[in-house]
Amino acid sequence: MDRMDFIQGVTRTRVLETRLLSKARIDRMIEAKDIEEVFKILNETEYSNAVAGISRSEDYENILSHELKRVYKLMREISKNQIVVDLMALKYDYHNLKVLVKERKLNKDLSDLYIPIGTADFQKIKDGFLEGNLRDMQPEFKDAIEAVIKDFELTKDPQRIDLIFDKFYFEHLYKMAVNTGIELFINYVRDMIDFINIKSSIRLKKQGKDMGFFEDVLLPNGNIDKDAILFTLNDSIENMINRFKNSRISSKLIKGLEAYKATDRLSDLEKYMDNYLVEINQPSKYVSFGPEPIFSYIVAKEAEIKTLRIIMVSKLNKLSPDATRERVRDLYV
């Protein structure tokens, strides 16, 4: 990957970064009296076109979906190499595969759950799947679908659809990141895998799952040794904190585990994971030549959209500004 190929893309990305929502504007939305006031504040930003089409406060998700699609379309135009965008878009391919298989195997209409973002032509994938023809499908998607269907026919357990697709997704994502040779991309994926494995350990412990089940769920290619992760299934939170205090992700992991211990909410650990993944992208602000700023801008926008979703849901549920502020993520700006 030639870093000089991204000079123009980085220049355009620097302009886009100036339009990211500031902390002051986020604070105004947190303090807003209702979601309608949040919409008015957003109308002052690049979200204005999306807000214009909203007539009911309950349709807030349309604003966020519109912005997400706009951003991915724009970054594909900006990026000289599409893999930079694909690294962030791949999760939507696998999300859509989950929905597709669940629709077929559970005999439900889940069409409103599809997300029209990804690395491949999903309509072509869907048509091939419904016709029973997987030959022309990308090998990673084909292998994932076949594994999920085979497992479901044996177990009839819909929960395993998500688990198996997730495993294929992260293996696919890691392979893509390694192929770029870009340190940030590889670290982003490996660090995320570590967070997810630790989160899975806590969740499965609460569900009373055994070591065999956890080993099946455990994602490969993280930085933390597989055995160290497996042993956490029998660890207290205090022991987990001590076990991982010297890991790459310890700066936010320890805070996340302490927050979980205090609240018993996995969402608190997820917040610190999200903050960490934004934090490791911040050095991209100082990269003049290369793909990192484009990738990091997408990370920033997704974090921003997640923060807006938290604020909007909080307003609909009439949560206090303080309760909302506890839930929002750190910003890239």
Automatic annotation (TrEMBL):
Entry keyword annotation includes Ion transport: yes
Superkingdom of the source species: Bacteria
Keywords: Ion transport, Transport
Keyword Phosphoprotein tagged: no
PANTHER family recorded: V-TYPE ATP SYNTHASE SUBUNIT C
NCBIfam families: PRK01198.1-2
Family, as annotated: Belongs to the V-ATPase V0D/AC39 subunit family.
Name of protein: V-type ATP synthase subunit C
Origin species: Lutispora saccharofermentans
